[in-house]
Write a structure and sequence with these properties.
- There is one protein chain.
- This protein is an alpha+beta fold and 274 residues long.
- It has 2 domains: 2-114; 122-262, 2-Layer Sandwich (Beta-Lactamase), CATH 3.30.450.40.
- It contains 5 helices and 6 strands, in the order H-H-H-E-E-E-H-E-E-E-H.
- Strands 3-2-1-6-5-4 form a 6-stranded antiparallel beta sheet, sandwiched between helices.
- The two termini are 63 Å apart.
Length: 274
Amino acid sequence: MAHDDEKGAQSRADEFLQLFKKGAEFTQELLRENERLRYSIIQLQKGVPSDPRADGAGQEALQLLSRIEELEREKLEIMERIRQVEAENQDFAARYVEIEAENNNLANLYIASYQLHSTLDFPEVLQIIVEIIINLIGAEEFAVMLLDEKLHELRAVAAEGVTCEELPVVRLGDGIIGEQARSGESYFAEDVAAYRRDLLFPMVCIPLKIKERVIGVIVIYSLLVQKREFAPVDFELFTLLAGHAATAIFSAKLYAESERKLSTIQSFIGLLSS
């Protein structure tokens, strides 16, 4: 699909270029004919009487003047069309660059999600999530918080730019973090540039959901220096990342618990056997 879009984009760009070249060539021809006709009028006017309608030379001069006016109108129409084509071409080029950036980000997310699901080691999964948030989202200070369903509390299990110990334990439903975890809705600060770090009120809060079940949140407090605001593609990345990260975390936790249970059972069987 992406390949077909690129071919269609290239074809349209070629059509724009051909139309622009033809318009430029025609304009040059009009200008040359315009100059030729003006020169002819000057030559004719040297022998034209005070009333140009008095003889054939005057009539020819009037015809030439009429033709010049017609050519001028055609030239203006062509120049206007060229300006429209240039504007369309600029819009097209900007959209093409935007699509390329989106494709690159989605390709990177695909690779990252593959890495996420390639391991069941819980610390490794958290480290991969941290790297994705840094490299794809462009966050500088952030944390991954998981929900303790028995205590109804959110605790940080991984962080960058801050320590897990610095981050508060948040009750489900309290503040932005607790409310977004309860509702399952994402939160984004209205003015990223004006935001000042507050550990209880993050710039961004993205619930980690498996279907409608929230298992935690990603909270972001600041972006990298080169990233001043969120682009439309970032919101798509947040949605995709939240789903993949939630699944990877949930699977890794289940695996760790099953390993612990298996180890306990094996130890118990060993005691019974001895």
